[in-house]
């Protein structure tokens, strides 16, 4: 009897939470994880950082996580995460000493960014955006 009542209350809270989060981003993606790590580090080390700078940075990181989590703009948040992952991979590759296996270039007509594998020599490229064909050495 008592367990059943608690289960109903728990289900009621879950339904209210689900209603609140409907249509929101609500994902713990890599940017949010990184911001939570920044929050935790600055919260732990704020005693050694002068002028409450640690508290301010920690609070800003946590508020950014909450704003991203509750945002109704799902696709921009997902795009931000993809750009963050690309940047993070470039930083990791820089410290590992790896170079990108691709050559990046732009279409001469529409300036669309494109890439091709390095070491292929001269290749004929067709732009997916404007269908212009040109030869590029990669």
Automatic annotation (TrEMBL):
This protein's name: Zn-finger containing protein
Originating species: Enterococcus devriesei
Membrane-spanning parts: 30-45, 51-70
Keywords: Membrane, Transmembrane, Transmembrane helix
